[in-house]
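User: Hey, my collaborator sent me this sequence without any context and asked if I could get a structure. I don't really work with proteins. Can you help?
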Amino acid sequence: MLLNFFKLIRVKICRTPRRWYSNMKLTFHSLTHNHFMDQGYVADTLMEPLFWFVENFTKVLGPFFVLAVCALTSFVVGVTYYLGLPYWWSASPAATVGLLIIGHWLLINVVFNFYMACVTSPGHPPQGQLIPEAVSICKKCISPKPPRTHHCSICDRCVLKMDHHCPWLNNCVGHFNHRYFFMYMVYVVTGCLYIMVFGFSLAWDEVFGDGAYLQYVHEVDEEEVLIGHPVRFNHSKLIPMRERMQNGSFHPIPDLEPVIKTHATYRSTVIFVGLVVGGITSVFVALGTLAYWHAKIISKGETSIENYINKSETKRYAENGLIYQNPYDFGLLANWKLFLGLTDGRGWRHILLPSRHLPKGTGLSWETTTFEILQSDTAKEK
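Assistant: No problem. I've predicted the 3D structure and written it out in structure-token form, which is a compact way to encode the shape of the chain:
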């Protein structure tokens, strides 16, 4: 190893670039190759500072993330009222009423699901009690761990059916608040699309068109205002003219300065909101992609952690010529009904309107497809 290292230092020996590259590659492998070295080990080593930061500061920064979400949402809603409401009311009062109903429906669902996702506990195994459903012992909590339960290093607790820890909620996403988290994403994405669709014509008209606040200015003919203006001086001071000549007599000139200032403020606001719309578009794309990915794993009866585990298990089974079956996958329709809590007579009203209904089960025990298969086989034998 040292010999190769010295060869790398002595560049004169390397007569060609190819030989220099070979010696450098050989030296690198001699310094790094061992039985425990692989791509995963290298990735974990490089990501260790990020893991340390997440574990030590995410809990502290969580409240600030929540305040940031609240502030951004309030800002977007305020600008929508300030710009969108007058624009659409002047265009069509009837259409404005419909837009207000849809907009408030989306806003109520966004606020409700965000609040519930923040304040609802994801569920934790009971402490100091015997848990018959436990399948293992948590190495960090040193306590029984039920199925689908994982330890959150940020909350330092085991979470029932844990999906992930969300810093924007300052809370873990688990069994009892997973639906709130997903519905919040769906309604935010829908709200972003709503703003982009119905705010496009407003932004286009104000930025590239005449705009609503210029209509009054255009009613006054500037050339007519300038005609017949006598020049009046008081020593060195210019006296502003407040009247104009029309039909042989003087008439007051409309004070356009407040109108121009109002329009300038309005135009600046619209341009600034145009930049915000770019941010809304980014949120729409990013959060829409995340919601789509969560919808895919929900369709398979998985959480984010289980998706990673099931991929590893599928690969391991395939190497042995076997097919891995997710024990919690009951099919597309059944998986969504279980996730959304559409059981015990509940319908879509509990999804389209705010609802605090709980998911099925306690999160300590779970029905599996294996159990259903055994039941059906037993029934056939009888």
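In plain terms: The longest strand covers residues 243-246. You can pass these tokens on to your collaborator as they are.
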